[in-house]
User: Which sequence fits this backbone?
């Protein structure tokens, strides 16, 4: 099979873990599969690059120097503990040193100018993968696998120039990735592509948005027409509920992209929604594989899953620490522009809206947002709306959770909502707001955080997900 394998930041976090990744890759390589590897930056590196870029923008030159030293050390240490062969180690360290030197120059440049543009920020952010890909390549070579490192741009991924959240231009990308990687793979070399990073048509470095390495795996998988894309995780696969909350949570064998996307939006941070969307568009098959059990089949994500009779719900997820913002005022009735304004204010503040619900009387709009953004959202909305006469009050309440019941079998099956809310009533869980998308893949509602565990357990039980 032709397989694109993606390893996340946690799985390449140190020398031992890199070695473990190498063992997995070698196993499937030896079995005769044709592999392309995509790797994230080592755990935490992208975050620190982002922080450092901001410091550099404020002119802190000394911090830049310290940061480069510690970044170089961390990568060198990982290389030294994972690579045995001296020649391979020396050439890997050389690449790492060169890249760190480049990064030092860039950050010092930013510090001298004292200004961080979105373009230079993306340039800095991409260095996590520009370091981890050659590192993993060294580890694979040390295990006698012929491998070659690529940045996303070198591999042929071309995007627009929306720095920080660039979109791949799939036609050119497909062509170029094929032209670049196929000959390499045909002569028996395994490409190791740094995820998350890409480039514009003029070669300016861009990034695909945080968590974007999954997206890279989809893009490469689509271009190479891979049989499957495997995303390696610390967990067994996609689960029917968070196993920390529900003891009887089970692994889901097969799930559709649409369902997995609902899970991704609702707290089960398993695969980036953009990766799922891309995979679904190009007819790929995704598999979530467990690092702890490489031989287990994992969860498969495919385009359409036949809904088995009676199998209405696939999973129950929850997001804790949610705040509810309610914008109310009688004269909001019939003013669609106000809803747009509310969302615009939150967008401008970069606040993630998790759920929206408006009653048909249009007396109020209720929005769920992360608790950490609660006060900021309330202040911003008050500032821009209270003067408008249409709005009487912007209230905020925290200590809440969103529960989402997900499954394609709910579509057109009457009575699911009644069952969900019946179960909540039987458990004396009070429901504060409800939303259901017209795709009917998901019913979500807001309850008090103290009730979240009880609610998830009761629903998991009632829909018999653990058996
Ligand atoms: N390293 C990038 C990030 O932390 C991309 C990824 O890990 O998927 O966002
Ligand atoms: Mg990730």
Assistant:
């Amino acid at each position: 099979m032709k397989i694109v394998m993606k390893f996340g930041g946690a799985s390449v976090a140190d020398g031992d873990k890199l070695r473990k990744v190498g063992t997995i890759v070698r196993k499937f390589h030896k079995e005769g599969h044709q592999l392309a590897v995509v790797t994230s930056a080592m755990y935490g590196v992208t975050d620190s690059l982002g922080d450092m870029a901001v410091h550099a923008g404020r002119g802190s030159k000394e911090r830049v120097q310290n940061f480069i030293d510690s970044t170089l050390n961390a990568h060198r240490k990982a290389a030294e503990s994972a690579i045995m062969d001296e020649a391979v180690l020396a050439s890997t360290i050389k690449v790492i040193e060169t890249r760190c030197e480049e990064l030092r120059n860039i950050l010092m440049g930013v510090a001298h100018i004292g200004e961080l543009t979105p373009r230079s920020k993306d340039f800095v952010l991409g260095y996590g993968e520009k370091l981890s890909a050659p590192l993993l390549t060294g580890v694979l070579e040390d295990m006698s696998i012929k491998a070659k490192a690529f940045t996303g741009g070198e591999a042929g991924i071309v995007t627009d120039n929306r720095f920080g959240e660039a979109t791949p231009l799939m036609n050119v990308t497909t062509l170029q990735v094929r032209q670049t990687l196929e000959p390499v793979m045909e002569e028996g070399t395994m490409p190791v592509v740094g995820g998350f990073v890409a480039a514009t048509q003029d070669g300016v470095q861009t990034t695909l948005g945080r968590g974007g390495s999954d997206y890279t795996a989809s893009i490469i998988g689509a271009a190479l027409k891979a049989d499957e894309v495997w995303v390696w995780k610390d967990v067994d696969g996609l689960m029917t509920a968070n196993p920390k909350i529900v003891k009887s949570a089970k692994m889901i064998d097969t799930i559709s992209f649409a369902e997995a996307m609902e899970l991704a939006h609702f707290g089960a941070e398993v695969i980036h929604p953009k990766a799922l969307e891309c995979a679904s568009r190009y007819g790929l098959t995704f598999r979530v594989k467990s690092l702890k059990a490489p031989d287990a089949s994992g969860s498969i994500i495919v385009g359409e899953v036949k809904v088995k009779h009676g199998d209405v719900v696939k999973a129950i997820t929850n997001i804790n620490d949610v705040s509810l913002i309610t914008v109310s005022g009688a004269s909001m009735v019939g003013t669609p522009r106000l809803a747009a304004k509310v969302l615009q204010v939150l967008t401008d503040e970069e606040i993630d809206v998790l759920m929206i619900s408006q009653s048909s009387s249009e007396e109020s709009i209720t929005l769920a947002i992360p608790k950490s953004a609660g006060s900021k959202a309330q202040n911003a909305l008050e500032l821009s709306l209270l003067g408008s006469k249409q709005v009487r009050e912007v209230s905020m309440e925290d200590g809440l959770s969103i529960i989402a019941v997900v499954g394609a079998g709910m579509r057109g099956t009457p009575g699911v909502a009644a069952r969900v809310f019946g179960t909540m009533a039987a458990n004396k869980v009070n429901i504060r707001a409800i939303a259901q998308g017209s795709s009917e893949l998901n019913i979500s509602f807001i309850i008090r955080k103290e009730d979240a565990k009880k609610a998830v357990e009761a629903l998991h039980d009632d829909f018999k997900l653990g058996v």
In short: Residues 8, 211, 214 surround magnesium ion (ligand 2) (CB under 6 Å). Residues 86-113 form the longest helix (28 residues). The first strand starts at residue 2 and ends at 7.
